[in-house]
C-alpha cells in the first residue's frame, strides 16, 4: 500500500497531531520508514539493474519516480509524458483471466499537470499505453490494469503506430519473448528531438518524435551476461513494417533520450552489451512480420 494515496486525510489528522506531539513524531518516523522501504526495497523490485538515470542536469530529462501495481515509471511534469516505464513479464498462465478493458483513462493526482482523458480528444493522437493493458492485466490483475489507465502511463501516439506496430510488439514481448526466456524486463518510453511540438488540444502535452523499447533477459547462470534487445520506432510508421527494421543498440537509445540504462552493470560489461544490436537468441526474424490483431 502506498501511504501517499491517503494524503487527503492529513487535514483531518492535523489537529490531533498538534495536540499530541508524540504522535506527530511517530508519524514522521513512519513516513521516513516508508520512504526508505520505497527507495531501497519496493522500487528496485520493479526495475532491472537500476532505474534509468538522467545523464545531464537538463530540465527536459528531469522526472519523478511513481510506483504503480506491477510497473514503475519516471514522469516528466515539464513534458506531461512518462520518460520511462519499467515492468517485468513472465509467461501468462493458460487460466489467466481476460479482464474487461476500462472505457476511460483517469487523471493521476500525483502529477502536476493533471492531464485527463478528454485532453486527447480531437488531437489526432491515440492515448498510447507504455505499460501495456494486455500483459499487465493478465499477469498482475485488476488493480494493476487500472493503473495502466492512469494518464501518467500515457503518451501521444499516431494511430498506425499505436494500433498496429506497437500493438504487435507488445504481443510478441509477452507471448514469445517471455516464454522463450522465462522472464523478461521491459523499459520503454518516448524520444524527443530538439524541436518542441505540443498537442493543440492540450498544449501542456509534448508530442514525442519516436519511442524506444529495451528488453533484458536475465542470465540463467551466475556470471553470465543478460541478453539485451533495443528498438527505436518513429511516429510516422505505416504499422506493417518488419520489426527487425527498427533494431538499434542500447547506446543509441541512451544518446537520444539522455538516460542511462542498466547502470548497475559492471562498466566494461555495460559498454560491451550496450554497443551491440540484439543477438541471435532473440530469433527476431521469426516474428518480425507477425501480423497484429487489428
Automatic annotation (TrEMBL):
Domain ENPP1-3/EXOG-like endonuclease/phosphodiesterase: 68-268
The organism's place on the tree of life at top rank: Bacteria
Domain DNA/RNA non-specific endonuclease/pyrophosphatase/phosphodiesterase: 67-268
Keywords: Endonuclease, Hydrolase, Metal-binding, Nuclease
Alphabetized SUPFAM superfamilies for the sequence: His-Me finger endonucleases
Active site residues of this protein: 129 (proton acceptor)
Positions with a binding annotation for Mg(2+): 162
Gene Ontology molecular-function annotations: endonuclease activity; hydrolase activity; metal ion binding; nucleic acid binding
Protein name in UniProt: Endonuclease
Coiled coil: none
Amino acid at each position: 500500500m502506498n501511504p501517499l494515496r491517503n494524503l487527503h486525510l492529513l487535514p483531518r489528522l492535523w489537529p490531533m497531531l498538534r495536540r499530541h506531539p508524540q504522535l506527530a513524531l511517530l508519524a514522521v518516523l513512519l513516513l521516513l520508514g516508508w520512504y526508505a522501504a520505497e527507495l531501497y526495497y519496493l522500487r528496485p523490485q520493479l526495475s532491472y539493474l537500476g532505474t534509468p538515470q538522467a545523464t545531464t542536469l537538463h530540465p527536459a530529462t528531469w522526472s519523478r519516480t511513481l510506483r504503480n501495481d506491477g510497473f514503475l515509471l519516471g514522469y516528466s511534469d515539464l513534458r506531461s509524458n512518462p520518460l520511462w516505464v519499467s515492468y517485468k513479464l513472465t509467461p501468462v498462465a493458460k487460466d489467466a483471466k481476460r479482464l474487461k478493458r476500462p472505457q476511460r483513462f483517469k487523471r493521476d493526482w500525483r502529477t502536476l499537470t493533471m492531464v485527463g482523458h478528454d485532453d486527447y480528444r480531437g488531437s489526432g493522437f491515440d492515448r498510447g499505453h507504455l505499460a501495456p493493458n494486455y500483459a499487465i492485466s493478465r499477469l498482475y490483475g485488476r488493480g494493476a490494469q487500472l493503473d495502466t489507465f492512469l494518464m501518467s502511463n500515457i503518451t501521444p501516439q499516431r494511430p498506425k503506430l499505436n494500433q498496429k506496430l506497437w500493438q504487435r510488439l507488445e504481443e510478441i514481448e509477452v507471448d514469445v519473448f517471455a516464454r522463450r526466456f522465462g522472464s523478461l524486463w521491459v523499459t520503454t518510453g518516448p524520444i524527443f528531438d530538439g524541436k518542441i511540438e505540443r498537442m493543440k488540444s492540450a498544449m501542456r502535452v509534448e508530442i514525442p518524435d519516436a519511442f524506444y523499447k529495451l528488453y533484458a533477459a536475465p542470465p540463467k547462470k551466475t556470471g553470465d551476461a543478460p541478453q539485451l534487445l533495443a528498438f527505436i520506432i518513429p511516429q510516422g510508421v505505416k504499422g506493417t513494417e518488419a520489426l527487425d527494421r527498427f533494431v538499434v543498440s542500447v547506446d543509441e537509445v541512451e544518446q537520444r533520450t539522455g538516460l542511462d540504462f542498466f547502470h548497475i552493470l559492471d562498466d566494461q560489461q555495460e559498454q560491451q552489451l550496450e554497443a551491440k544490436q540484439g543477438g541471435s537468441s532473440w530469433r527476431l526474424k521469426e516474428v518480425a512480420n507477425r501480423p497484429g490483431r487489428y
